[in-house]
Write a structure and sequence with these properties.
This protein has 5 helices and 9 strands. By secondary structure, the chain is of the alpha+beta class.
Length: 163
């Protein structure tokens, strides 16, 4: 969720704050965004700052990760997408690449790069993911929408307690 995304999608909000951030209890899950690096890379992230930046860090264009990296002054905007960015990593044309952890590992496995890429110990950030619905659907089906979001909360909690 980002405030500008409220314009095109309906997020599960708190009833007493419909203009504020989503109700975190109704999230799908919390995703970690890791910094992928070449296995022999020197980039470091201590949880608040980077060191050993030469080429910058990539992330998919338009993602929150790209905005955060840009704000931190380390974003390499010449990266097209995850596959391209991860290939640039192994060729030492990027110092790091930020993407959601499971997605990144899946792409690395598909590209056959598991021995050439690792992740830094500290995640770059975490973000709650939500099931976003259209405003039109939410307006016409408020009860179904609320029921759906509440059932997602129950299902997520059940999965967590089963682990």
């Amino acid at each position: 969720w980002q405030p500008e995304r409220d314009q095109w999608g309906a997020f599960p909000k708190n009833q007493n704050d419909p203009l504020g951030p989503p109700n975190r209890k109704l999230r799908l899950w919390t995703a970690q965004y890791r910094i992928f690096v070449p296995a022999d890379g020197t980039l470091q992230w201590n949880g608040s700052g980077f060191s050993n930046i030469t080429h910058g860090i990539g992330a998919p264009l338009g993602y929150v990760a790209a905005k955060k990296l840009s704000a931190d002054g380390v974003y390499n905007a010449h990266t097209l997408g995850p596959e391209h960015g991860l290939k640039l990593l192994v060729n030492h044309r990027l110092d790091g690449y930020v993407i959601e952890t499971l997605y990144g590992h899946n792409i690395i496995q598909q590209l056959g790069l598991t021995d050439e890429i690792s992740t830094l110990p500290h995640p770059y950030f975490e973000a709650d993911w939500y099931l976003v619905l259209s405003h039109q659907y939410r307006t016409h089906n408020p009860s179904d929408t609320n029921h759906l979001w509440q059932n997602l909360e129950k299902a997520r909690n059940q999965v967590i307690t089963e682990k």
